[in-house]
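Hey team,

Filing this mostly as a record. A colleague (T.K.) asked me to run one chain through the structure pipeline before their review meeting, and I want the input and output archived in the tracker in case anyone asks later how it was produced. No errors, nothing strange. Just documentation.

Input sequence:
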Amino acid sequence: MSIFENYLTEETMEFRIRNEDKFQYVEEGEGPILLLLHGLFGALSNWGPALDHFSKKYKVVIPLMPLFVMPLSDTNVDGLSDFIHEFITFKQYPPVTLLGNSLGGHVALVYVLDHPENVNALVLTGSSGLYENSMGGTYPKRQDYNYIKTRTEYTFYDPNIATKDLVDEVYEIVNSRTKGLRIIAMAKSAIRYNMSKELKNIHIPVCLIWGRDDKITPSEVADEFHSLLPNSELNFIEQCGHAPMMERPEEFNALLDNFLAKQIIPANFH
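Output structure:
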């Protein structure tokens, strides 16, 4: 059972996975659409507190990205952006606010450049696209559980956030040949696709919410995003690592609430 399924069955029974066509996703609440994109080792559990908080005021949508079932030739950042476009087109959503963590932020950036008419605003947290010290600078060693545990803990300021379930999930992924090949392909794609020269073309409002102690995309990366994105604001959360929405959900949600209050427009309602 995946983290995605664990989160649904054990923590918030009221949130259910919807299946339509080839898409699996969560859609809860009504109002302006917040579309949340998880990272390379991520899933719904990463966005759990945000889903619970924001679905009271917005329509929160989390598509499960097909990281491990895409053809290997399409397993790259552009391929995931194309998938998100297929999903948004299939659902016929009006313009959305995109939120992306880590690889999900990278996908969101590519999507905004390709389809600016479909996005009102963008939120990035621990995003790749400029620099990423993935898994502490090395690819995870297979069959070494303690190594996987240490590298997973590296994601957070507080290593206790890396629960046994989370470590088990990462361990299972890197020890699966088919999943491992796709992780490598996707990680290499993210490293190759540096967006520094393209960010000046993103003119929608962008909110950067970063863990001050992020070791994977350090604070200097947030500073660079802020300098390159013409219409951005930068917020740091102290004593926080690569996934602020997991590690400091109250602070993350408060910062996001403030940003959304300034950006969301009534035309999103349907």
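Quick notes for T.K.: The chain has a mean pLDDT of 87. The two ends are 35 Å apart (CA to CA).
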